[in-house]
Amino acid sequence: MPASLAPVQSAEKVKAAAAAIDALQALVADDMREVNKTIIDRMQSPVVLIPQLAGHLIASGGKRLRPLLTLASGQLIGYEGRRHIKLAACVEFIHTATLLHDDVVDESKLRRGQETANEIWGNQASVLVGDFLFSRAFELMVEDGNLRVLAILSRASSIIAEGEVLQLTTANDLSTSEDTYLEVIAAKTAALFAAACEVTGVVSEQGEKVEEALAAYGRYLGIAFQIVDDALDYSAKQATLGKTVGDDFREGKVTLPVLLAWRRGTDDERTFWRRTMEDLDQQPGDLERAIHLMGQHNALTDTLERARHYGAMAKDALAIFPASDAKQILMGVVDFCIERGY
Amino acid sequence: MPASLAPVQSAEKVKAAAAAIDALQALVADDMREVNKTIIDRMQSPVVLIPQLAGHLIASGGKRLRPLLTLASGQLIGYEGRRHIKLAACVEFIHTATLLHDDVVDESKLRRGQETANEIWGNQASVLVGDFLFSRAFELMVEDGNLRVLAILSRASSIIAEGEVLQLTTANDLSTSEDTYLEVIAAKTAALFAAACEVTGVVSEQGEKVEEALAAYGRYLGIAFQIVDDALDYSAKQATLGKTVGDDFREGKVTLPVLLAWRRGTDDERTFWRRTMEDLDQQPGDLERAIHLMGQHNALTDTLERARHYGAMAKDALAIFPASDAKQILMGVVDFCIERGY
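ok -> structure tokens follow
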């Protein structure tokens, strides 16, 4: 049923995917409690609006996939220290800061099924609390004191911002190439996934090969994750996605499903895409027509195929590590990122 | 002529103040050329909108007071290394990032006499390029590799964000205390002035007393600078200030001149302040009446007196350093910050 708002993934696979994230959470449950404690502890400020606003987003039931990856990487490589706890919190702070700024930039009203912070407290507070969390992330890193970790995470932060700006300049431009699309998502999403995994390798001091493998796993996983996210914007059920279906469409964000449907479209269809995505002249029924066209041209199913390609690369990046529960679970996380319905 | 838009400072003192900043620029002219080169070099990105937008603000003729202070601190303490060049650029990047976000938060249309970046490229790009510059600042610090410098500047960044949020929560609230006002400006402005001076002390490794003295000088100077800035918003000529006179008034920002006029006002005047600052119900002539009331109650002249108090503390903080050209000039910079007409 590609022409409807139903998920493109099979219900069975979605269920298996959910089991994978449960297994990941179970694997690192003890460490994650400490991470959550650190997050709550370090988002405090005498300026009460800061923990109030940050807490709204942090307590809103995100999966905390990135810090989970930081912790699971530790199990994969047999790291026995405690430094990854603080770094996992730091990764989540950077992620939260970018979410706050993204929601301002995208004028989003809903995230994870709740009103966004900018809807409740306004853009001003969201921008500034994002800045605070970002600075606080650096304070946490400095406390850890590893200069290579600092280099990796400060570089990742620059790359994220570059990716977001690049995305802004490609919005409403249907001539965007698939390469540019990949450049945007590699920067805005995959860079932090990669850093989240890599930093555990750095503090465990097991050498370059281990760090590279972890970074590659994170990077490919992040690319797959974002590609699927972009597909879900045209296919997920609003209740499970926790955001409004069609957000990207309404903003004229040129993501992979749009790129494929546009490239495979007739002249008449291209006129439709130009009006809706470039001129942002949208009428009732346009989102449904967009989804219908994507179905007709296999744009959503092929988008997921592209994601599976990067997912396979993520799994192969783990080849250097011996079999273990952690490895099995991290393989499952790849499936989760691809087959998830939310 | 306190009841007019004319400067509260005497023309003679304004002229002497300008000479002080000229002397500061001459003192560190060679180093500053390298700082400017580093700034231009490190704001580059393959995403062209980034150097374009950042360059607009960076090239707009700001005084670059903070990096100048980083460099002059080096001369004051006889530092002969080159590490302060990169740190000065880093301080200016942090400052520029906060300006970009401030202009979004304040919805400013003019800065330094030019259209703001958010007016030209929109809020979205300003938020994201601010994030980029902020991340880039951390990359520069990491390259320097001094963990204490990293701690000082990441802490300063958190404090700046805290101060900005606190300012947001005190806007339109005439019951704000002078203590809270001071807390806001110490955080949003003085923290970076302090860090800008302190970091040179850290890399020159001359001990805690030197670092403390430099930090104290910067902190008191920053407080004086911001108090004067808040007075100038009701008194400077638009052409020299390079921003619109009355911006704070229009936003209902409760700064020291307002606090003093409010506290010294009659019941009738307080009704006026409540309507204009708390309800933001403003009519033509209201700004002129606000300035008139400030004149009647010596609110602007007493605001400058408060600034002089912190200026004196800044000068005294330099007591531990022997007489030198640099010391003389840094003393003069205090006068500049207080007596400047812009």
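The interface with chain B takes residues 45-50, 98, 101, 104-105, 123-125, 127-129, 131-132, 134-136, 138-139, 141-142, 145, 147, 150-151, 154-155, 157-158, 160-162, 164-166, 168-169 of chain A (CB under 8 Å).
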